[in-house]
Design a protein that fits this description.
The chain is an alpha+beta fold. The protein is about 20% helix and about 25% strand. It has helices at about 20-30, 85-100, 155-160, 205-220, 235-250, and strands at about 5, 15, 35, 50, 60-65, 105, 115-120, 125-130, 145, 165-170, 175-180, 190, 195-200, 200-205, 255, 260-265. α4 (about 205-220) crosses α5 (about 235-250). The chain starts with a strand and ends in an 18-residue tail after the last strand.
Length: about 280
């Protein structure tokens, strides 16, 4: 078991135990006042953990014996260094929001470790899929960020400027969080979360900023409405990010209308009338 939380079983502060004995000595000195737990937000049993030092194999956390002396029978599903990545992503996003004077509520729906729901105080929301355990719902309100191994639907990439990705890499006894910007037109560009910004429209990476600026300057429009999943990230990403660029440039803005993105004058928020439904054929 390589990951734990600090403080108590309900904590969301993750920690990774070094695997080498010499590194564990340093780790122990740095965390003399801390207690380690098989956290509930890791899918754990809530028991307290101790560090186990080895010179001939990997060091790891182990459960303290139960009060009656019996061994702990925790059945935590994931114990590797990536098993706390959802908490590292939460921590990185919290720091980033704080830098911009914003706050958010975080939730971790089941299965634990697979999803992170983020509700910002201004009404924006995000869902982060850390793995492919839950299929992304492109109909839900709010942006979707995809983790490693989560393959976006081809229609999503074909019908939107970009999709956000997230991954975590080991950095000593920590995990560094990266945000990627994936699109059909160019390879995925990864940057540390600390290099992302927050606008009134939500999260913005340097690559997404360039993509929307290029599209705005070229006067391009998104793909046909039939190519855009209703309520999907691509529709929200296009309408909101393009709106930001167009407001700054004075060229109008984009509004979202029943599954399509349409150009509108700066003072107009009206959507075009919906086409009449086709008669059914018996």
């Amino acid at each position: 078991m390589q990951t734990a939380v600090i403080g108590d079983e309900h904590s969301d502060v993750p920690i990774i135990l070094p695997t080498e004995a010499i590194e564990l000595d340093v780790f122990r000195r740095a965390h003399q006042q801390d207690t380690f737990w098989c956290g509930l937000l890791l899918g754990g049993c809530g028991g307290q953990l101790a560090t186990k030092l080895y010179v001939d194999r990997q060091c790891h956390f182990q459960h303290n014996p139960l009060p009656n002396g019996a061994p702990n029978t925790c059945r935590r599903p994931s114990v590797g260094e990536s098993s706390a990545d959802h908490l590292y992503v939460k921590s990185a996003m919290s720091r980033s929001l704080l830098e911009y004077g914003r706050a958010a509520r975080f939730a971790f729906p089941p299965p634990i470790g697979s999803l992170v729901d983020v509700d910002l105080e201004d009404g924006l929301s995000l869902r982060i899929h850390m793995d492919a355990a839950v299929r992304p719902d492109w109909e839900r309100q709010g942006a979707v960020i995809l983790g490693p191994g989560v393959v976006p639907d081809p229609d999503v990439l074909a019908g939107c400027p970009y999709v956000y990705r997230v991954r975590c890499d080991s950095d000593g006894a920590n995990r560094r969080v990266w945000i990627g910007t994936q699109s059909l037109a160019r390879p995925t560009e990864w940057v540390p979360f600390s290099e992302c910004t927050w606008t009134d429209e939500g999260l913005l990476t340097p690559a997404a900023s360039r993509i929307m600026r290029d599209r705005s300057e070229a006067g391009s429009r998104p793909a046909a409405a039939g190519r855009l999943p209703a309520g999907a990230l691509c529709r929200r990403a296009w309408s909101r990010s393009s709106a930001a660029w167009r407001r700054r440039s004075g060229r109008g803005r984009w509004t979202t209308c029943a599954g399509s993105a349409t150009a509108a004058a700066p003072s107009s928020t009206a959507c075009p009338p919906r086409p009449a439904p086709k008669p059914s054929v018996p």
